[in-house]
Amino acid sequence: MIDRRYIASVVSHPTPRNPEAVPRVLLLSMYPLDRGLWGATTRITHMRDALARRVSLDVVSGARLGRTAALGRYLARRRLSGLRGIYVESSTALPGPMDLAFMGGARAAGISVVTYIRDAYQLFDEYRLGSAKARVARHLFRPAVRSLMLASSTVAFPSRGLAVATLGTHRGRRAALLPPGARVADAPPVDPAARAILFVGALKHAASGGTTLVNAMEIARRSVPDLRLIAISRPGEGLPQPHPQWLDPRHAEGTQIDGLLADVLATVIPRPRTPYNDLAIPIKLMDYLGYARPMVVTDAAETARIVSEARSGIVTGDDPEALAAGIVAVAAAEPAAIEAWGSAAGEAARANGWDLRAQQVLDLLGIQP
Question: Is 196-351 in the same CATH topology as 4-181+354-365?
Answer without folding.
Answer: yes
